[in-house]
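Listing 4. Sequential folding, example run.
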Amino acid sequence: MSIWSVKSMEQLRVEAAETGEHSLKRVLGPVNLITLGIGAIIGTGIFVLTGQAAAQYAGPAIVLSMVLAGVASALAGLCYAEFASSVPIAGSAYTYGYATLGEFFAWIIGWDLILEYALGAATVAVGWSGYMVSFLHDFGIQFPASLSAAPGTIVTLVDGSSVTAVFNLPAVLITIAVTMLLIVGIQESANVNSVIVVVKVAVVLLVIVAGAAFVNKANWTPFIPTNTGEFGYFGWSGIARGAGVIFFAYIGFDAVSTAAQEAKNPKRDMPIGILGSLVICTVLYIAVSLVMVGLVPYTQLGVAAPMAVAIDAAKVQAQGTGWAWLIDMLPFMVKLGAIAGLSSVMVVMMLGQPRIFYSMAKDGLLPPWAKAIHPRFRTPHITTIVTGVAVALAAGFTKISILGELVSVGTLLAFVIVSFGIIFLRKNRPDVIAPFRTPFVPLVPILSALVSLALMASLPLPTWERLVAWMAIGIAIYFGYGRSHSELRKRLAAGAKG
C-alpha cells in the first residue's frame, strides 16, 4: 500500500454513523458549537498575546495585524466548514487530510495538530497563571513568585526586587482541573464552557465600552512605528509578524470540527459553529485591540497581563468622573473574566486533542489504548489523561512566547493542508455534495494557503527550527509504528489477496 492512499468518503461516513458504548455521545447543538468556538477563540490571544505582539512587533498597528490574521482565518474557516459538513467525524484536519491527500499527509497533520491543541492549551495555562497570581494579589494573597513562571524567568516583586522562577504551579493546577472535567463528559464540559463564554464576552464588551471613553489618541501615534531596520520589528513587516504571532488569537474555530461526532446534526450545524464563532470574535478582537493600544503606550504592554495594565491606566484617568465607579470595577471584572475565559479555552483545546488521538488510533496509526472510551462517561479518558500530563509539563516549564509561536506555526501548517485538501476533494471526488460548499474554488483555498504560508514565513527562525525537529520526530514514529499498523493498509492488503 502506498503512503499516499486515501480513506474513502464512504468509509468515513460509516464511521461517523457508529453508535453504542464504544462511540462518542451525540449531544451538541448549534448553540453549543458556536460557544465552543467562541470559548476557544477568545482567550490568551486577546488577554495576553495582543499586548506582547503590539509591544514587540507592530505597535498600535496591531489592529491591522488583527485584520490580516482575521482574513486568513476566514479563508481557512470556509474550507473547514465544507469539510466539516461533508466529513462529519472526529479528527478535524487529520481526517480531512486522510480523505483527500493520503495517509502520510494525514499523519503529518495529525502530528502537527498536537502543536495546536496540546501546546495551545499549555500557552493558555501560562496566561491563566499570570492573571490568577494578579487576581490573588488584589485580595492581599501573595503567591510564591518562584512558583509562578517557567524556570529561569525573572519575576519582579512588588517591592522592586526580583526572583528567578523554578516552576509554574498555577498553570499545572488548572490543567489538572480541566482534565478531570473533560473525563466526566462532553455535555458537562460544553455546559460549563457556555456559562464561561457568557461571562467573558460580557467582560470584553464592558472593556470596549468603558475603555473607549478614556482612549488617548496620542497613544495611536505613530500608528505604524518606524521599522528598526530588522525584518519583523515594526513597520509593515512588523504588522505581518504581529499577524503571525497574534494568529494564535483566532485559532479555535477549527477546534469545533473535532466535536463533529458529538454533534446532533453535524452536516447543518458544523458550518454554523465554525463560521459563526469566527465572525463574532473577529469583530470583538478588532474593537478591543484598538481600545487597548489607545489606553496605554504600546511599549508598556509586553507583560503577562497586558489588558490589566490597560485597565489600570483607565482607572487613573477616570478618577473624578461619572465613569469612576464602573472603571473601578473593571480591574476586578477583567481579571475574573480573563481567568474564566482562559479556562474555557483550555476546555476546548484539551477537548480537541484527545479526539485527534482517538481518530488516529481508530485508523491504527497510534496504539489501541488511544481509542479507548470510558464505559460510563463515553469520553476518550486515557488520551485525555495523556494530554493533561503533556499540557501540564509544557505549561509548567516553558515560556509563553515560545509556546505561542509554536502553536501559530503548527496551526498555519494545518490550514495550508486543509486548503489544498478542498481543491483535491473537488477535483477527485466531484460526486461528494456537501451541505456547505466553499465559494470561489480554487481561488479561496489558494488564497487561504498563500496567506497562511506568508504568515508562517513571518515567524522567527527558531520557531521554524523547532517545527522541523518536531516533524522529524513524527515522521520517525509513522514509519516506525503507524505505517505497519495502519487499518487502511490492512484492508487494502486483504482486498488485494481476495
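-- end of first protein; second protein begins --
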Amino acid sequence: MGDEDPGPKGHRERLRQRLLSGGADALLDYELLEYLLCLAIPRQDTKPLAKTLIARFGGLPAVLTAAPEALAQVKGVGETAVAAIKIAQASALHLLRARASEQPVLSGWQALLDYLHADMAHGPHERFRVLHLNARNMLICDDLMGEGSVDEAPVYVRKVIARAMELHSTSLILVHNHPSGDPQPSRADIEITRKLADAAKLLDITIHDHLVIGTSGHSSMRALGLI
C-alpha cells in the first residue's frame, strides 16, 4: 500500500499545492469551487456539491454571481457556504473595479469591460447603471439607476441627468445587461439612449457609449453607430 492519503484531507492538500504552485489556472472550475467550499465546510467532501452547483447554475461565474437565496435552495449549501461564495465574488469585483478605476476609463477600456462582465453578465434581472466621469475621464461614480425584471429595467432620463449635474459629471457611460445572454441592443435600448444623449448634450455632457452586457460578450452602441 502506498504512503499517499487517499482521503479528503490528502485530496485537499493536493489541491492546495496545485493552487499555490500553479495559480488559478492549475485548477479546473469545479476544483476551485470545491476548495472554496471545503474552507466553509471542512468536514465534508465538497467535490459533489461543487459539481452540483456548477451544473445547476451553468458554470463557475454563474455560481459566484447567483443570489444568496438561490444558492441556499441547493441541498447542502448552508449560510456559511453562501457567505464563502459571495466573499469570493466580492473580492474579485473589488480587484476588477480597482483596475478599472486607476486609469482614465477610455484608455483602460478592457479593464472596464472585464469589471462590467464579471458583475453583470450572469445576473438574473436587468440592471441599468451609469458611470460618471470627470474632465480627465476618471471614474467618479458608478450608479445603479434601475433594476427590473428578466427583460426590463426602468430608466428615467430626468433622474439620470439630475444625478450627472449633482456630481458635476462631464461625461457618462451607460451600461445595462441582458439576462437572455444576447448583448444586441433592442429598439427600446436605442430609443432611450438617444433620449439621454439629446438631454445630456443640452448641458454639455457627453455620452461616450452605451454598453450592453451579455454572457456571450458585449455590444457598444458607439461602435454600432447608434450614438
